[in-house]
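Contributing new records

If you add data, match the layout below exactly. Sequence lines come first and carry their own label; structure lines follow with theirs. Keep one chain per record. Anything else will be rejected by the validation script.
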Amino acid sequence: MRAGRGGRNWARSLITFIGVSVLSGALAAGLAVPFAGFAGRGSAEVAASVENLPKELTIDPVAVRSRILAADGTLIATLYEQNRVPVPLSSVSPIMRKAIVAIEDSRFYDHGALDLKGTLRAMLRNQTEGEVQQGGSSITQQYVKMSLVEKARTAAERTAATAVTYERKLTELRYAIAVEDQLSKDEILERYLNLANFGDGSYGVQAAAQHYFRTTADKLTLAQAALLAGLVKNPTGYDPTNDLTRSKARRDVVIKRMLELGVITVHQANQALRTPVIDLATVEPVPNGCANSRYPFYCDYVVAKLLTNPALGATPKDRDHYLKTGGLLIRTSIDPRIQAAAQASIDKHSKYTDSSAAAITIVEPGTGLVKAMVQSKPYGNGRNHTNYNYNVEKSYAGGFGGFQNGSTMKAFTIAAALSKGIPMDYRINSPEQIDLRNKKFKTCTGFTRDPTYQPKNSTHSGDLTMVEAARFSTNTYFLQLSQRTGLCPIAKIAAKLGMYNGQTGQPLDQVASMTLGVGYVTPLMLSNAYATFAARGKYCKPLVVTSIRDNSGKLIPGPAFECKQVLPRAVADGVNRVLSQVMMPGGTGGRLRFGTRDMAGKTGTIQQNLAVWFAGYTPNLAAAAVVADASLPYTNLMFHHTLNGEDIADPTGSGTAGPLWESAMQSAIRGLPVERFVNPPKKMIGDPNPKPPDAGKKPGDKPPKPTPRPNTQAPG
């Protein structure tokens, strides 16, 4: 019974083989083949299935790895589904070409799409063993199969592309005939060598040469070429990083086959056989993805931004696939020198084992280019590691969403006051504590009040000007100032400068304590907002991706420089004047000043010491540094928290976050041209020795009519 079934299988296989043989010649001539001359039902079934096959194969571009570069062109990360670097056949050593042809299809240049001898030999072996074990495929057929596997997007397509059936072989043959008609033999071999899997994550001969031997495809030796040629049949089984003994045996089979065909001499063969297979110590892994980047958090943010770009695909999934297969060249804003300065500051003032976390972002005023982004917790899943990026908003994968920014928010109240014509010499009686219970604060939609609000100062109190209150960061002054300007102007200016709730993506809340910084913002937002003051009111959206090019070098649309004037120059100049006084001796940032450059800044300490900030800038660079508990909800830094391995006894913006900002900026600014802030109009500065206009008045009284905002701008 078994013999009878085997006989019928043999007869059907023989008919199939004859049909394939005739088909190969007939289709090459462009003829239709009637199968009526073949006896038996099997031949009719073969004819029907073959005639319904498509005649041409649509070949998708091969998957090529993409690269993300820093501003200076150095590599940040490689992204790929398959590590591949295509090269022309002229860039593949002749011995490599001979090796692959010798072991895979020695008659490649002599036959058409089908090697009849090889197919018959394979079929006889398969029938003897009872199932399809050997395909006997030509290089062209293998190329077709690899192409079908490459373009498969679903499990069903992948199964069909690798099914062990004669129907698949017929499909491959029909396609192979079309390929042979469209391409020369050298073109087919070039595509084959660039498409093939050479094991251990290396696709294509160039990537394989780099990976295993740290060389290029045009410099491969005989022994190296034989090893690579042997891998194609079983990339995992013959992978030298998995099994050196088996890999050597396969390599030697290739060398002996080349000798048998007369491709190499006996001397060459003996030399190659004596050559060690590979030095595992020289195998060069190609890191894949941001986790292996030297700037993993920044890299993650870049990728998150790219996944929002519709020019890369209709959906995030399509964009992700294109990023890893399109051979893109992505240039970014990060400056390795400035990044190193920020990282050195983090390393100097913190330890990754600290219970607190520190983060710094540095931005270039006038462009929005994000020059550096660092944090104290390393990237990863281990203890004291994190996948959260403390510098960016929560809407991006891995974004932490920010921290309450404290008194750094007062800069926007200063801008609102100056915009309304209130000069810098404007005095307000600012007691140590103020009763604001049920006091009205005008918002964009009405009024708000807090029935329990009785805030205090942590620094100087008294009858103060705007400059003095900024130098001392006097809460009761700025609360009264915000009441007089209204919260709506503050909120609108903050929004124009890119400030919003980093946790929710919503506008900052207009509440009584708004000027004291109760909204969740990120170092990226704050540094870029302060960069707007440095750029004299010109706001630029933060930019991390500066260009994207496809595999052919064509520019792909993406985010560009997007800048606009959002504040009058005179107002920005005025903010710079006020905040520069913070950096003078006696100001909360006075100890952080260095050199003779113009610089401005503001401290920020959250109620209950939940986070501390220092944000500051020169005309060249703006940076924001934060130290906080990175758990949610985050807790008081004074209790059981460490920074740089020591307990945080007295967390302040100047004393805790300030040194991070200082050392980062001091190194980052080195070598940049010295630029100066522009003086604001004299009317905005006011009387340098003003009389207190609020003497004898109670907090909350209406201010005197402010000086009208000047229409002229300062020169420069």
